[in-house]
Write a structure and sequence with these properties.
The complex is a heterodimer. Chain A is mainly alpha-helical. Chain A has helices at about 1-40, 40-45, 60-95, 100-110, 115-130, 135-160, 165-170, 175-190, 190-205, 210, 230-240, 245-275. Chain A is about 75% helix and about 0% strand. By secondary structure, chain B is α/β, with parallel strands linked by helices. Chain B is built from ten helices and ten strands. The longest helix of chain B has 14 residues, at about 120-130. Chain B is globular, with a radius of gyration of 18 Å. Classes of the chains: A mainly alpha, B alpha/beta. The interface of A and B includes residues 170 and 172 of A.
Chain lengths: ~280, ~250
């Protein structure tokens, strides 16, 4: 009897917390879409802000859409190129050095918690040191640094689940550790790696503070890496700061655009990861 | 024995941290015979097997003293690349670990990494080795399906095929039938009987009946030590040590 009560109690507890979370998320989405959809139109998607845009004049946020895509794709690409091999190295080459591994993981977890504005400030000093101005490049470098710990730890958590027996099997077939890393361990965890990349992309495209000093903000669309670039989160911030209610609604419309971009990337990566999931052992 | 020795383990001691896992191991494994390393669980048989292809390199805090000679080369103290050493040996583990790719590529993997890319030659070899382990008839029409879809018994045979495909001289098997159903186990055992004509097989097991069925040479281990070793007939019919006798009577299990 007591077991039955326990079961009912905890089940309802879990159900309630589930519903609560769903409710809050739905509320956020609903309020964004309610305010945003009204202001969303083709002009917002297809035009740059005209003069006086932030005071209610015409234009759109094409500069921020393109800038955000450039920036987050660039940063995610760089972070993948650096982060995936690091995680593979940790799980194939360092597999016997548990203490070293734990230390690296601890450090990564620590810098994961650093607020993104600190990365922005660090990126800025780096720019001064390298002698580059606020630009797409500076933004990409800073955001890469910002998402790297997330990328590495997320990949690491997935690679950790790859069984040691698989590593042994591949090595005993006479393959080197590098071949084993890329052909076996990576393939085993491929669907998870895609999720890790997606997670990093989400962080990259959604962050405002790290790009504030580094990528800057502009009404133009950058045509090279050395030009400043606008981003959606900052665009949302500037539009929200406007005294004109109409412009504030455009901020919500920009948020809708951001959500739709993330949704699209998420669905695409799911389809991709499904394709590779079937080979998993 | 009138056979040549393929693997000679010389005064091997292995420690993990402060634990003394293998104690003064001296064994000689004859070429082209099936040698069984027998003993109760936790006596160090698997660790000994993993020393032979240096998978012990992957474990933390392992310290090894002594030598393992394979064809007169001390694999623990050699300049030869460990990858080259491992190529000489196929490994069959307790649970099959097929590679995360399709059936065809599982067998072709070892060949591809050693540089063989000719599609026709690969096809022929894949077919050949899958036939050798009696798997071809079951999978020939779905070679491009993931290996993970096969049953455990089929997976273990696939692992044997992929091991054979890289032309090893030695097969190391770590309780290869422990996760399998009786029929699959029998297939593997019968396969081993055939394979020992060309390969030196070292098999770890704790199943006494299995050892009696297929062993040519037996190494009996207990608590990290080799208690007794010798040709199977002698070992089973006329054990010299008390501990062997009581093990054979079932006292340890």
């Amino acid at each position: 009897m007591i077991k039955k009560i326990e079961e009912i109690f905890f089940r309802s507890l879990m159900l309630i917390s589930n519903l609560l979370i769903l409710f809050v998320l739905a509320l956020i989405l609903l309020s964004i879409f309610k305010k945003g959809l009204g202001a969303l139109n083709w002009e917002m998607l297809s035009q740059r802000p005209h003069g006086g845009y932030y005071y209610g004049k015409e234009g759109g946020v094409l500069n921020a859409i393109v800038g955000s895509l450039y920036l987050s794709f660039g940063a995610t690409l760089l972070a993948t190129i650096i982060g995936v091999p690091v995680a593979l190295f940790m799980n194939v080459y360092l597999v016997k050095q548990k203490r070293v591994l734990n230390f690296i993981r601890f450090l990564l977890d620590l810098i994961w918690g650093v607020p993104s504005i600190v990365y922005g400030a660090f990126g800025f000093t780096l720019m001064v040191f390298l002698g580059i101005k606020t630009s797409l490049l500076a933004g990409i470098i800073t955001v890469t640094l910002f998402i790297l710990p997330i990328m590495i730890r997320a990949c690491d958590e997935i690679l950790k689940t790859s069984p040691l027996g698989l590593l042994e099997a591949s090595l005993s077939l006479g393959s080197t550790k590098t071949e084993t890393s890329f052909r076996v361990v990576l393939m085993q965890s491929f669907s998870g790696i895609i999720t890790a990349i997606l997670l990093s992309f989400g962080r990259a495209i959604g962050d405002a503070a790290s790009v504030l000093f580094t990528a800057g903000y502009t009404d133009n669309i950058p045509s090279s890496l050395s030009e400043p670039a606008a981003t959606l989160p900052l665009s949302i911030f500037f539009q929200l700061s406007s005294p004109v209610p109409e412009v504030q609604n455009r901020a919500y419309a920009s948020a809708v655009i951001l959500i739709i971009i993330i949704l699209t990337i998420s669905l695409l990566s799911r389809a991709l990861s499904k394709k590779y999931h079937k080979n998993r052992i | 024995m009138n056979n040549t020795t393929k693997i000679k383990v010389d005064n091997l001691n292995l420690y993990i941290g402060k634990q003394h896992i293998l104690k003064d191991i001296n064994i000689e494994i004859p070429e082209n015979k099936l040698t069984v390393i027998l003993g109760p669980s936790g006596c160090g048989k698997t660790t000994l097997l993993k020393c032979m292809n240096r998978l012990t390199d992957l474990y933390q805090d392992v310290k090894i003293n002594g030598s393992i000679f394979i064809d007169n080369e001390d694999i623990l103290h050699t300049k030869t690349d460990v990858t080259e050493i491992r190529k000489k040996m196929g490994l069959l583990s307790q649970r099959p670990f097929p590679l995360p790719m399709n059936i065809y590529n599982n067998v072709a993997y070892g060949l591809k990494i050693s540089g063989r890319r000719n599609k026709k030659a690969l096809d022929a070899r894949v077919e050949n080795y899958l036939k050798q382990v009696n798997l071809w008839d079951e999978v020939h029409d779905r070679l491009h399906e993931p290996a993970s879809k096969l049953s455990i018994g089929q997976q273990q045979r696939l692992c044997l095929a992929r091991g054979l495909a890289v032309d090893p001289e030695i097969i190391l098997a770590d309780e290869p039938t422990s996760a399998l159903d009786p029929i699959s186990s029998e297939t593997i055992e019968r396969k081993f009987e055939e394979l020992k004509q060309q390969y030196t097989i070292v098999m770890v097991t704790h199943i006494l009946r299995q050892a009696r069925r297929i062993a040519d040479y037996v190494v009996f281990m207990y608590m990290g030590e080799v208690i007794e070793q010798g040709p199977a007939k002698e070992f089973f019919e006329n054990p010299k040590m008390d501990r062997t006798k009581s093990y054979l009577q079932g006292a340890f299990n």
